User: Fold this.
Amino acid sequence: MVRIIALVLVATLGLAGCVQTENGGPNRIDPRDAHAIRLNQMDLVNTIRAAQGLQPVTLSPQLTAAAQTHARDMAAQLRAWNFGSDRSSPQTRAERAGFVGLITGENVAETFLGPVEMFQFWYADPRAKAAMLHPDATHMSLGWYQEESGKLWWVQLIGAQQNMTPVVMAESQ
Assistant:
């Protein structure tokens, strides 16, 4: 367990500069760091997955789109939860974004914590950690919406993408 925590802490060091304080104000995430933040989050998740003997996950652009949309929607609802303002589920939102597979977990939060601290918070929560360690997971992403006040609305989506088997059509004679 100590080794896992050490690996997670080492993996977080590369992200330390992605959240900055402007003139003593709230932490702001630079939009140019979005891809680096998502890669770091994936590395953190894969570190704990590897320690459990689980396959790594990769980033999904479809899950990113669904997570970004839901983060903004949660901010509009003023509530961090797993339902969209239209009562959509994580599965429905992922499918709308083009993800083909099963959503195995969605972690959400409303906070002033940066991406590293958010991961650490989810890692300490048994339900959120279980979502990250789902044995069938193949893909993930992280989305957020940041208000002017600095408050962040986080969404981490994890899913098991289905392999697309081509449909073979029989020739008619």
Summary: The first helix runs from residue 2 to 12.
